[in-house]
Amino acid sequence: MKKYIITAVFSLFSIISITAQSKSDAQVSKLYQNYLTIKSALASDDADKTSKAATEFIKTASAVDLKVVTEGNLNTLRKDATVISDARSIDAQRETFSNLSDNMIALAKEFKLSEKPIFVQYCPMADASWLSNEEKIVNPYYGSSMLSCGSVKSTIK
User: Fold this and answer.
1) Are 104 and 78 in contact (CB under 8 A)?
2) Taking Cα atoms as reference points, which of 44, 50, 39, 47 lies closest to residue 143?
3) Among 41, 65, 97, 130, which one is least packed by beta carbons within 10 Å?
4) pLDDT, tens digit, for every residue of 99-137?
5) Alpha-carbon span 129 to 140, nearest angstrom
6) Would you state the torsion angle of the CA atoms of residues 61, 67, 70, 75, taken in this order, to the nearest 10 degrees?
């Protein structure tokens, strides 16, 4: 009987752990979706939309469980997103997006952000990378002036 109780307790902890893990992955996945919205707004040369998307990113980052992503990492992400949100110039937003992207790339390597592959793309003109959920290059650093400039550097599965 004691053996069955111990087995039941371990099973319960496993279920709780798996549930917590999928919830945490969902929180971090939402952060990734917000990041993609920022990237798309930059690619479309829309500073206002970029600012709003960055504000949503901050809200999502504030809701992520600190047991999942460390407070220091979240603070760095929020700081970059706040600079993007507060900036009124698309050039200033793009400059900070490079930092946000570097931190999101590190997060993508640590967590499963998407069921589909995530592409790490690179713009040689900006000397900066970004994440995308598709192979097609849509450059957030130069928008319409060089929308297809760049290449896929790696894939995170």
Assistant:
1) no
2) 44
3) 65
4) 999 999 999 998 888 889 999 999 999 999 999 999 999
5) 10
6) 30
